[in-house]
Structures are given as C-alpha cells and as structure tokens.
Amino acid sequence: MRNPMGPVHTPGNAVPPLDDDLDGVLEDISSIHAGLDQIRDGIRHLALDRLTADQTQIILSALAGSDGADILTGLALLVQRLTDADTNPALRGLPLALQKTVRHLGEQHSHELNYPDRQPLADAIGLIDQDN
Fold it and tell me: Residue 130 has what DSSP assignment?
C-alpha cells in the first residue's frame, strides 16, 4: 500500500521494506512451482537491493522497457507456450476444439502482454540521471 505522505525515508537512506501490495502478490504465488518461486525470489531481491541509478535504468529496461528483449516479452512467450497443446503436453487430453480455443486465448493474452504502451517507462528510464 502506498504511503499517502510520499516515499518512506529510512535511517541511512536504507531500502524500505516491501509494501503490502507487492509482498502480498509474492506471498500469493509462493509454493505453486519451483520456477515461480525463483521468479518470486528474483523480484524480491530486485525490490530490496540497494541499486545505483545506472542499475535501475538497466533493470527497468530489462523488465519491460525493451520491446522484444525484456522479461515482459519472455512472460508473454511463456504464456503462449503454456496454452499451446503442441508445446504443453498437459493440454493434449483436452478435446481438439478446446485445445484450439485455449491456444487462441493464450495467444491473445500474450499479444496484449507483449505490446503494452512502453513509452511511459522509456520516458522514466530516460529521466533517471546516471550520474546520481
């Protein structure tokens, strides 16, 4: 939950703890699968690590700022793979028509995830002064 008074400043300018929203999401996806636990641990590490401005720019770009070369693109392609019976044998037991529907919906979601308006993040990345 955001602090209505603005950013939380801690003694010695330490990185503040996770907010309730991010912490809650990370807890909600805990123990579903080892792969998700690794992603969750990576998100937690990135959120709590003391980063430089340069690292922040690079990480933001790698997360969602580089069309086709970022984590968001990777997640979109993973969604597409997991909803396709040709690449996810778990779906092969579904009736063929349902397989096609699931694949189509996965492709649709993947497309929406992969093609967001990246300009606001690109603008934010550009505003971060690397000399800070």
Answer: T
Q: What's residue 82's pLDDT?
A: 96
d(CA 20, CA 50): 19
Looking at every residue in the chain, the average pLDDT score rounds to 88
Q: What pLDDT does 1 receive?
A: 46
3-state secondary structure 79-99: HHHHCCCCCCHHHCCCCHHHH
Question: Residue by residue, what is the 3-state secondary structure of 20-88?
Answer: HHHHHHHHHCCCCCHHHHHHHHHHHHHHHCCCCHHHHHHHHHHHHHCCCCCHHHHHHHHHHHHCCCCCC
Is residue 116 within 8 A of residue 70, CB to CB? The reply is no
Q: Tell me, what amino acid is at 95?
A: P
